[in-house]
Amino acid sequence: MLADRHSMAAWSGRTDPEADSARWHQRIQALAEDSQPGLALLGFACDEGVRRNQGRVGAAAAPQSVRKALANLAWHRQAPAYDAGDVTCEDADLEAAQARLAHNVCALLDAGHLPLVIGGGHEVAFGSWSGLAEHLSGQAAPRMAAPRIGIINFDAHFDLRDPTHVHSSGTPFAQIAEQCAARGWPFRYACLGVSRASNTRALFARAAELNVLVREDHEIRESTLEYIGAELEAFAAECDALYLTLDIDVLPACEAPGVSAPAARGVRLEVLEPLLERLKASGKLRLADLAELNPDYDIDNRTAKVAARLIHLLSL
Ligand SMILES: N=CN[C@@H](CCC(=O)O)C(=O)O
Ligand SMILES: [Mn+2]
Ligand SMILES: [Mn+2]
């Protein structure tokens, strides 16, 4: 086990007497060296990036709160699911935590698992992507000279802040763009649910420079669902592998109050879910993560339940 800590304590809940009534807590297993390929949940218990980004901290506690919410959901999977433990951030050393996350994600991919990382602040994205990059550059994956990794971020924010001075929850995709440039890899980034009011002109300009596929929050609604779904499929078709990153603050604050920076408008769950279904259907999803859930501001575990439902959807 590579992760910094591991406990199955969160996995408890209701047990029904009827046959075929299993819930996640009854089926999820602790990851072992010889585990058959399956879905691997890995926590990134870190909000140092949020602190550096002047945000309200608390997201480090999200992995445990999501596990508790997921524990009681009904189990409909055929393939196994594992808990791979948590990577933690020690002594505010975000860079070291991201490097350990990357090694863990790479090891899971090498072993044939689909890693689903539960952040943490959105600084999780740099560690997640680095793990996929390490995997695609290594021996375990089919050789690709310059893999076309498509990043699909559902987020009210671009998280493309200038990383020159500080690495934070606001910089991961700019850090990834730098990494791609250094490796001669294409940078393919789609950011959906962006709030114009919450992102400066400088960030919109950087997104344009980097050729980011941008859809603002107000553009994603039931009447445009077909168009945006087709646009995402076309984006996916031009990629070798997809990395999906879900910033929970893409949802309206009434649906997801427990986040570091709540969205005044957001994209509703009923619109988000069909888009995720279409992405799954592409068959190219290699990695997913969830970011910015902050249990300190949650109401009756509403946000944790939404996060658990999204994991449940992705796991089917
Ligand atoms: N990952 C967070 N990103 C946002 C936070 C905005 C805020 O704190 O209001 C950002 O940096 O833009
Ligand atoms: Mn974000
Ligand atoms: Mn955000």
TrEMBL record:
The keyword Hydrolase belongs to this UniProt entry's keyword annotation: yes
Q: Where is this region: Disordered?
A: 1-22
Q: What job does this protein perform?
A: Catalyzes the conversion of N-formimidoyl-L-glutamate to L-glutamate and formamide.
Q: Does the keyword Metal-binding apply?
A: yes
Alphabetical list of CDD domains matching this protein:
Formimidoylglutamase (cd09988)
- Keyword terms: Histidine metabolism, Hydrolase, Manganese, Metal-binding
EC id: 3.5.3.8
Q: In which pathway does it act?
A: Amino-acid degradation; L-histidine degradation into L-glutamate; L-glutamate from N-formimidoyl-L-glutamate (hydrolase route): step 1/1
Q: Which Pfam families match?
A: Arginase (PF00491)
Which parts of the sequence bind Mn(2+) 2?
A: D155, H157, D247, D249
**Binding, Mn(2+) 1:** H122, D155, H157, D159, D247, D249
* Reactions performed catalytically: N-formimidoyl-L-glutamate + H2O = formamide + L-glutamate
Give the gene name: hutG
Please give the name of this protein: Formimidoylglutamase
Query: Which family is this sequence assigned to?
Result: Belongs to the arginase family.
The record ties this protein, via PROSITE patterns, to: ARGINASE_1 (PS01053), ARGINASE_2 (PS51409)
Classification lineage? Bacteria, Pseudomonadati, Pseudomonadota, Gammaproteobacteria, Pseudomonadales
Its cofactor is: Mn(2+)
